[in-house]
Amino acid sequence: MSGSETLSDPSPGPSDNDNKGNESGSSSGGPEHEPEHHHAASTSHEHDHNNDHNHGDHSDGESMPFYVAPRQRQRWSDDQHAPHTDWGDIFFDLFYVAAAYNLGNLLREDPSARGLFYVVGCFFPIMSIWMNKMYYASRFYVVDDIFHRLFEVASLVPLASAVLHIRTVPILSDQEHNVDMFAFSLCITIAHAFTLARSVEIITCQKLFHTDGLYEEAYRNSRRDLVSVGVPTLFHLAAAIYSGTQYYGYNEGDDGSPKYAGESRTLAAAADDPKYGYAQETDVAIFLNLAGALSGTIILLIIVFVVFGGWFGRTVDFQQQFVPMNIDYCIHRYGEWIMLLLGESVLSLLIVDLSEGFDYYMTFFGGIITVILLEYLHFQSQPHDPDQHAQRRSRAAGFFFTCMMWVYSASLIILGTSYKMFLFEFVYADAAEERRTLFPIGDRFLAGGESSALRFAVEDRQQRIAHFFSGSLALVFFCLDATIIAHRGISANVARLDKTWSANFTAAFLIFLRICLIGFAATISQYFTDPAQLAIIGMVCVVCQLILRVLFNFVLPDEKKEEQNALERVANLLKT
Q1: 3-state DSSP call for residue 558?
Q2: What pTM did the predictor assign?
Q3: Which residues are CB-neighbours of 473 under 8 A, at least 6 positions away?
């Protein structure tokens, strides 16, 4: 996980009355506070910010400048306003729809523990690029100029190439015959280098050119980013060097004559063939890539909880060390992130070969309804007010929320892929009939041959798929409940039990049922392996989760939320 994830800290600030709330800190992890009172300069600062963005379209005939230095979105004394929609962010997300889809195909072709390891090893480095960009944009902004336009275009190239080379396990692990692991690792390294370049730009503009709108905390924040992003970059570079050496390395042929391993690489179809047995497979590179992604979180822990956590008796003013995040922007981007992952689940259900059996359509509609309900369940679990978000509440809550988002995101991909594997079970059963494909991309990894998943016996394969489905569904439920706790805090949730005895007992019983539902979801694969049955049971579990949420909120209504809704209604009436 990337070290650019950020957290909060309840300690800084002159007094509790001077703080509006806690907020995630630097891209290297840092807790901060946002004061409740605002200086008069905050309005002009935000006004200038919006004006700079409005000049980005240059519709008034002004020529586009070649270069304008980035600036902070806000300081601690500034009001925070949700930034305007950035269409570049939405376009950036499209690459991740393809990444999620390719990861799903990877797991479908190898429904095993090793296949899962490769999915996580490819997904976390890809996700860290998204996280780095989001946390940078939540603190800094750039005016629409030629240099940064070219920079954004260039930064998309390694991301697109990395997504392109997410292939099946036999291809990625056979680095002597296939270039894909080397290309993937190299592109991840280059993408992280672009992130480092952003930090270098901030440091240079603030320290050397004393750019207006960049302050001392931006320098300190970006300097730590060089460490928190630089260390993962070294791991990805090591993976690229190792796999590149394997592919371009100097080897000895069968007759003793020297040859380049790259000259005898096989076609993708051969690598995917279940009978493909002569490959020299190794998992070192994917392990290094995964270690690189995880190293960012370890560095984040050290920076936030050790270096600036008071372990060495240091008194730290976090407002001088970290640039505040725009939590409104983060909420918006997290929502778009989950939508694109759920979109992968929709693609997994729609872009698949057809079968005409009743069970096939029961599985299909059960999956579609489940994905729709999961979308509703997610947004009911997340706050829309920045003051109620975990990343503003405390640094521990922010760190916990970020970790849950990594697990939650990976679980959504695996859950969506499970539905694809369910449907393919019916396709495999109808293999003797003429195959009808909705869209050619569905056969990308088949490459003219049988799926390598067919090397498993039917019962064994369906058992493996059931394990993936039940495990990912349970993790989705767990992460949603865990993020609710992160947003509100344990004490605030316990305080809701301060009602009558009957209401408290009913609420406790509903909580017990939610825990039991997570346990049942985690063990579904022990009782059922039929794809149609699993799809319907999963849909029923999501419906039960929604019902339990509604009943809990009815028994113990959220008074703060009701008060906030009442204030919003009054504000709307005053506007009219």
Answers
A1: coil
A2: 0.83
A3: 415, 521, 522, 524, 538, 541
